[in-house]
């Protein structure tokens, strides 16, 4: 105990030091825990650990598990069940074991619970790019938290809040839906913005196809299309998060059938896949806003 009111400091082990594991290792260390050992399953991961977690030893898998009071399983969803089985072979009773996979709750950690571990699911709802910025973003993020009982819930909530983040309880039976919603909002946003940038580059380049793809503003690192789109997308995101569907503007909100039809034609000339994406998302917006039958018919019609 650091002070009479402080939570106990834990010996933390990280499995493994990818983008998420490294950021969490830094965050737990900043919160005062002792991140003493990590498992790195590749030279790249080992180099990342040496650079960003120099206070931790790169050790064998079994040693990290056996010598830690808190084990963080920062492995891909597809590998989690196998890793959980391996952890169960080495875990000591009373050890806290949490994973960072969004789609799984605690059922996947059942072998560890059977061996006496306290199992948690603490998924950071954040995207990670592999830099120190990831750790800073954790303090502004939320974690989807699932535990087996009130004791596990209290531990999970405390650990997340110590990082400066916000814990949100997700039922075991809702983990897949929770993860699907996040992927739809964040991962599919990547596809949406990529399509919008592609179409803007075509518009900026004009019929001659000038070098809009590589053009930048004042020699900066961001392209003209990205520069044009960024303020609008940022404002739209802020507005919809604050105001919900009522924040919608543009031709669908106005019921402007002719403009939407022209959009579909122009986007089809750039790439039919972009037009299909526009049709689906505009159709969802039209349905949410009870658009008139003419607009809904246009968006529901097969191209």
From TrEMBL:
<dbReference type="InterPro" id="IPR008927">
    <property type="entry name" value="6-PGluconate_DH-like_C_sf"/>
</dbReference>
<dbReference type="InterPro" id="IPR036291">
    <property type="entry name" value="NAD(P)-bd_dom_sf"/>
</dbReference>
<dbReference type="Pfam" id="PF10728">
    <property type="entry name" value="DUF2520"/>
</dbReference>
<dbReference type="Pfam" id="PF10727">
    <property type="entry name" value="Rossmann-like"/>
</dbReference>
<dbReference type="InterPro" id="IPR018931">
    <property type="entry name" value="DUF2520"/>
</dbReference>
<protein>
    <submittedName>
        <fullName>DUF2520 domain-containing protein</fullName>
    </submittedName>
</protein>
<feature type="domain" description="DUF2520">
    <location>
        <begin position="142"/>
        <end position="283"/>
    </location>
</feature>
<feature type="domain" description="Putative oxidoreductase/dehydrogenase Rossmann-like">
    <location>
        <begin position="5"/>
        <end position="124"/>
    </location>
</feature>
<dbReference type="InterPro" id="IPR037108">
    <property type="entry name" value="TM1727-like_C_sf"/>
</dbReference>
<dbReference type="InterPro" id="IPR019665">
    <property type="entry name" value="OxRdtase/DH_put_Rossmann_dom"/>
</dbReference>
């Amino acid at each position: 105990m650091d002070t009479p009111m402080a939570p106990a400091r834990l010996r933390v082990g990280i499995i493994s030091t990818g983008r998420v594991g490294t950021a969490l290792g830094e965050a737990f260390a900043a919160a005062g825990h002792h991140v003493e050992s990590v498992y790195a399953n590749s030279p790249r991961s080992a180099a990342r650990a040496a650079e960003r977690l120099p206070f931790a030893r790169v050790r064998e898998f079994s040693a990290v598990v056996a010598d830690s009071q808190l084990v963080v399983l920062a492995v891909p969803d597809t590998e989690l069940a196998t890793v959980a089985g391996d952890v169960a072979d080495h875990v000591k009773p009373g050890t806290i074991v949490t994973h960072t996979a969004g789609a799984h709750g605690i059922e996947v950690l059942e072998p560890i619970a059977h061996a006496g571990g306290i199992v948690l699911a603490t998924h950071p709802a954040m995207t990670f790019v592999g830099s120190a910025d990831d750790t800073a973003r954790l303090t502004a993020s939320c974690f989807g938290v699932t535990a087996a009982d009130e004791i596990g819930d209290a531990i999970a909530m405390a650990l997340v809040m110590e990082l400066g983040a916000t814990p949100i309880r997700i039922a075991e039976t809702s983990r897949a839906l929770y993860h699907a919603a996040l992927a739809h909002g964040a991962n599919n946003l990547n596809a949406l913005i990529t399509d919008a940038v592609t179409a803007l580059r075509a518009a900026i380049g004009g019929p001659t196809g000038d070098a809009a793809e590589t053009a930048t503003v004042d020699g900066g690192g961001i392209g003209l299309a990205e520069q044009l789109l960024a303020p609008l997308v940022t404002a739209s995101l802020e507005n919809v998060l604050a105001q919900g569907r009522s924040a919608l503007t543009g031709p669908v909100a106005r019921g402007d059938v002719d403009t939407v039809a022209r959009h579909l034609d122009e986007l089809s000339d750039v790439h039919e896949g972009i037009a299909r994406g526009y049709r689906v998302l505009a159709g969802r917006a039209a349905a949410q806003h009870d658009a008139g039958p003419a607009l809904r018919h246009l968006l529901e019609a097969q191209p």
